[in-house]
Amino acid sequence: MDLGLARKVAVVTGGAGGGLGEAMLVRLLREGARCLAVDRNPERNAALVDRLRAHGEVAGHIADVSTPDFGAGVVAAATEAFGGVDIVVNNAAIYPSRAWDEYEIEEFDRVIDTNLRSLYVMARAVVPEMARRGGGSIVNIGSITFLVGMPKILPYVTSKGGMVGFTRALAREVGELNVRVNTVSPGAFPTGGETIHPDPEGYSRHVIEQQCLKRRGTPEDLADVVAFLASDRAAFVTGQMLEVDGGWAHW
Q1: pTM of structure
Q2: Residue of 157, 207, 164 lying closest to 182 (CA atoms)
Q3: Given 3.40.190.10, 3.40.50.720, 3.40.50.970, 1.10.1200.10, which CATH number is that of 9-244?
Q4: Which of 17, 49, 107, 228 has a 20 to 30 A CA-CA distance from 32?
Q5: What is the pLDDT of residues 197-226, one digit of tens each?
Q6: How large is the angle between the packed helices 219-230 and 19-30, nearest 10 degrees?
Q7: CB-based burial of residue 103 (10 Å sphere; 0-12 exposed, 13-18 middle, 19+ buried)?
């Protein structure tokens, strides 16, 4: 199915941070979108852009999404490279792991600033540009940890719960501009992020036990859903949270 993404301009944050961001970029590029890969690590992002060039038109931009003014720079970079912005995938996130009462306030704030406040900063910068171009799609990458209340990552879970509220409220306010806002909440995918678990094999068995589907998800499983929501095939879908988790949190 042609998603109609040819020549659309997509921004993906946190693209170089692991397999999920890269898979999203590859999927969008293969659909003909032109992509800006945003990451805070220059060397890692440069290597990512080099790999992505085999799939389509791509440029890189270095930004720390925890800062209060990164959004304007992202829009400027996308406009310089490709003429504007049609799609944003807010994928950048951090997830330090420890008991709930062992976080310092500064670390808690850093998680919220990176995972949640960044959505507002990006929206302030990108929504006017999308409106100028006739509309657009914002896809936020959430987590089913908000639904299951996973321990040892309380600031992360808090930020992902806030993302759902942000998605629903912003969708109400920007719908008249033909800007859609949705959240995709992944389950557990076998990426570098699982290195925080002391027993990866045992964790993998636990994940499969929780799911309806008895296999591990792949980054491509998530990327397919993100590409659909980014496209006009989802033109009447906004304000939603869609779980892509193999049926883990399926109530």
Answers
A1: 0.94
A2: 164
A3: 3.40.50.720
A4: 17
A5: 677 778 788 788 887 888 888 999 999 999
A6: 50
A7: middle
Task: Give the pair of three-digit tokens for residue 250.
Answer: 């399926």
Number of helices and strands (H, E) in the chain?
Answer: 9, 7
Q: Where are the domains of the chain?
A: 9-244
Nearest residue to 137 via CA among 28, 49, 37: 28
> Tokens in use for 52?
């992505």
Alpha-carbon span 239 to 170, nearest angstrom: 8
Buried/exposed code over 31-60 (b: 16+ C-beta within 10 A; e: otherwise): bebbbbbbbbeeeebeebbeebeeebbbbb
| Residue 216 neighbours by CB distance under 10 Å | 15
Which of 250, 214, 249, 244 is CA-nearest to residue 24?
Answer: 244
Which of 48, 50, 130, 150 has the alpha carbon at shortest distance from 91?
48
Q: Which of 17, 78, 92, 91 is nearest to 47 (CA)?
A: 17
Q: How far apart are CA 76 and CA 187, in angstroms?
A: 33
For the annotated catalytic residues, the residue numbers are 156
Could you report the per-residue pLDDT of 59-115, keeping only the tens digit for each? Answer: 999 999 999 999 999 999 999 999 999 999 999 999 999 999 999 999 999 999 999
